[in-house]
Amino acid sequence: MKGFSKLTEGLIGQPMLEILSVVSAMEAAGQTVYRFEVGDSQFDAYPHVIEATKAALEQGHTKYVNSRGILLLRESICDYTESKLGFRPDVSQIAVMPANSIIDFMMRCVADPGDEVVFSDPGFASYIAVASYLGLKTVTVPVYEKNGFRLNPDDLLPRLSEKTRLIINTSPSNPTGGVMTQDEVQRLAEIVREQDVYLLSDEIYAENIYEGNHYSPSCLDKCRERTIILSGFSKGHSMSGWRLGYAIGPVDLIAKMSQMFETVYTCIPPFIQYAGISALNTPQDLIEKRNRQYKKLRDLMVAKLNEIPGITCAMPKGAIYAFANITGTGMTSKQFADFVLKKAGVALVPGTCFGPGGEGYVRLCYLRSEETIVAACRSMKIALRK
């Protein structure tokens, strides 16, 4: 039998999900594991979102629908964008699809094998994984703890070339929690315009900012020329398993991405889309209340990590992760992750899963119970003392 295609040779998958699989097997064997490896939440979707989903099912919203997303949801996204970012996109600028699919289809639409994609290091693992299997060259821009892990837009310039097709920016950042300032975002938008390249602005954590505000580089072109916003419901609305996201971008690019989506997926189940409509209409006081809960968990996690010998952790301003510096333990990121899983029953992600710049760090999602955070940090502290 003949082998697989060249395309498959670049597949590397998502390391967080590989860790999840290992940990699930450990739990099935009866082991207790404190789980911080995936960007998921102990909180459920809001009750009104669940009720909206039930109602949609009962009303028969279970058939094929427009591959771009039902009109009511796209109109709701327009309303939401206008309220948050100050401009109103046209419904033709919106496509409803899972957020990871947006990363894949975006790269497919604007780049060919050998072209370059630029993003920060450390950066989200899916950027690395998608670029790898599509045969794209990744060009990374280091970000540093001393600068709050914020991307300096001017550091992009020497890394851009005639082969650059796409810049990806994430603020707040996964895995670091870094949040760019208004001036930095404005400068990024200017560079993208000057260099005439596409920008994928990953704003999936826009609701999860604890100090300061969210700023979008869509401020200049309103997503009509070269900026594409990636957003969704997994993080801000605790709907990770619903796999509901959306892209806002130039009409012609959104049309191409939508064709790709309909070729592979046909459509997002309509009852899930009605849940999205309900989520976008969540009262602001509920969102603020949940963010206060997130902030409390963040503060606890960072405080407890900083009590462990050999570990320091800067306070992240956004997202849902602590990115802890473990260089004081004398272990590499991978060694530390393996050690605490085996000796302390704590599952976390080596920083190198997010690029070489993550060496010396580990990522933990802190959306867990206070009891779990305290117990896990105590277990690591004891294990490291032995």
Automatic annotation (TrEMBL):
EC numbers: 2.6.1.-
Coiled coil: none
Keyword Transferase appears in the UniProt entry: yes
Name under which the protein is recorded: Aminotransferase
Cofactor(s) for this UniProt protein: pyridoxal 5'-phosphate
Xref: PROSITE patterns: AA_TRANSFER_CLASS_1 (PS00105)
Main enzyme class: transferase
The keyword Cytoplasm belongs to this UniProt entry's keyword annotation: no
Origin species: Anaerosporomusa subterranea
A Pfam family per the record: Aminotran_1_2
InterPro entries for this protein: Aminotransferase_I/II_large, AspAT/PAT-like, NHTrfase_class1_PyrdxlP-BS, PyrdxlP-dep_Trfase, PyrdxlP-dep_Trfase_major, PyrdxlP-dep_Trfase_small
GO-annotated molecular function: pyridoxal phosphate binding; transaminase activity
Similarity field: Belongs to the class-I pyridoxal-phosphate-dependent aminotransferase family.
GO biological process, one term: amino acid metabolic process
Record's keyword terms, sorted: Aminotransferase, Pyridoxal phosphate, Transferase
Domain Aminotransferase class I/classII large: residue ranges: 35-378
